[in-house]
């Protein structure tokens, strides 16, 4: 019920601000946008995706496919543990934990 009343209020607020002069102004502004698009050689239906956007899309797809585990690193650590050559750096581990904690405190307050 409350959501409906908020929705109605929001619609009323939008329609109150859509005065005829604003609508006319918006219609007058539209041809200039179209002319800029036509000067650029684009129609209203053209979409241009930048190289950066393509790279981001590819990186996102790769991240979604990944399980987040560096399997080569895991294999190397297992090998070192089996051979008894693994060296655990407790100072570096403690510092990383504290750094993560500080970041969380800064982020969450």
Explained architecture:
- Mean pLDDT is 76; it is low at 1-7.
- This protein has 2 domains: 2-39, no CATH class; 51-108, no CATH class.
- The chain has 5 helices and no strands.
- The protein has helices at residues 2-17, 20-39, 51-65, 71-83, 90-108.
- It has 109 residues and is mainly alpha-helical.
- It is elongated, with a radius of gyration of 28 Å.
Secondary-structure map:
Elements: H1 2-17, H2 20-39, H3 51-65, H4 71-83, H5 90-108
The strand count comes to: 0
Helix content: over 70%
Query: What number of structural domains do the residues give?
Result: 2
Specify the overall morphology: elongated
Order of helices and strands: HHHHH
**Structure annotation, total helices:** 5
Task: Report the sheet with the most strands, covering strand number, pairing sense and barrel closure.
Answer: none
Quickly give the structural class.
mainly alpha
Distance between the termini: 34 Å
Q: What is the radius of gyration computed over CA atoms, rounded to a whole number of angstroms?
A: 28 Å
Strand content: under 5%
């Amino acid at each position: 019920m409350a959501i409906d009343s908020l929705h109605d209020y929001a619609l009323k607020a939008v329609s109150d601000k859509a005065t005829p002069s604003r609508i006319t102004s918006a219609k007058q502004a539209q041809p200039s946008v179209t002319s800029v698009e036509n000067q650029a050689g684009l129609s209203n239906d053209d979409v241009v995706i930048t190289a950066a956007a393509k790279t981001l899309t590819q990186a996102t797809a790769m991240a979604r496919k990944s399980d987040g585990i560096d399997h080569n690193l895991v294999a190397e650590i297992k090998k070192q543990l089996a051979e008894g050559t693994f060296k655990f750096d407790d100072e570096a581990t403690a510092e990383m934990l504290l750094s993560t904690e500080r970041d969380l405190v800064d982020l969450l307050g």
